[in-house]
Design goal:
The protein is an alpha/beta fold. The chain is 40% helix and 24% strand. It has two domains: 2-84, no CATH class; 136-248, Metalloproteases ("zincins"), catalytic domain (Zincin-like, 2-Layer Sandwich), CATH 3.30.2010.10. Helix 4 crosses helix 5 (196-208) and helix 5 (196-208) packs across helix 7 (230-244).
């Protein structure tokens, strides 16, 4: 048994490859290696949100060889990143979409105070020590998202004559919202970065699932009756959804 556990530990250690990063101009791209016993060759692709690289590594291929493969793929990586667009970092001077509208992030030389917005000048003012700006801004965005999503869900719950238990915010990469059979709703906080009608649609979509936990004809009839801009919002997400995930949180 001891020998078996030791063999298992060594095998697990061999399967784990330390991540790395690739410098491309002024941008550093994370590189994550995932060993796959059934893979026959090295495979490189962008993460779904486009913020990093995923490298599938066959059994027996070393980390050094996988890194060399990444280095030799620089031209392909650059072309894919050009298609992806530039990342938005939560730092002063960056342009961040708030409810779909461009706002510039401004740091205020004040130790105290709340994050505020200037809708006329399209500014987001973030007070506090500069090293804490990202955390404070992210907290503000999530609070705004929760307020807007809760209001939208409450509205549609009344219209559709249903109730929900609670709302949870996550940073989901593959979906904008979800609904459980127990009546719990989950949403991506990044919806606060989308136009208001998009957030409204996602809320309506998940609330409609409280009545029809499927995508059948009755579900779509209910959703489209109560949310006539659903098609417009779905088209926006299809065309622009990936850009929302380029905000580095």
């Amino acid at each position: 048994m001891v020998q078996f556990l030791e063999s298992l530990r060594k095998t697990t250690k061999q399967q784990t490859l330390e991540p790395s990063s690739l410098s491309l101009g002024d941008e550093a791209i994370s590189v994550v290696f995932r060993r796959h016993v059934n893979a026959r060759r090295l495979i490189l692709r962008l993460e779904p949100c486009g913020s990093g690289l995923l490298v599938t590594v066959p059994r027996g291929v070393s980390r050094a060889r996988a890194l060399d493969f990444v280095e030799r793929s620089r031209s392909w990586i650059c072309s894919q990143l050009d298609k992806r667009g530039r990342l938005t970092h939560l730092e002063p001077g960056q342009c961040l979409k708030l409810r779909g509208i461009d706002h510039e992030i401004r740091h205020i030389q004040s130790r105290r105070g709340l994050v505020t917005t200037d809708p006329v000048r399209r500014l987001i003012h973030v007070p506090g020590d500069l090293p804490h700006l990202r955390r404070r801004l992210l907290t503000f965005l999530k609070a705004e998202a929760r307020a807007d999503i809760t209001a939208a869900c409450s509205k549609y719950a009344t219209l559709m004559d249903v109730g929900f238990r609670r709302i949870t915010l996550r940073d989901q990469k593959s979906r904008w919202g979800s609904c459980s059979a127990s009546g719990e709703l989950s949403f991506s906080w990044r919806l606060i970065l989308t136009p208001e009608y998009v957030l409204d649609y996602v809320a309506a979509h998940e609330v409609a699932h409280l009545r029809h936990l499927n995508h059948g004809a009755r579900f779509w009839r209910l959703l489209l009756t109560q949310c006539p801009h659903a098609t417009k919002a779905r088209d926006w997400l299809r065309l622009n959804g990936q850009q929302v995930h380029l905000v580095v949180a």
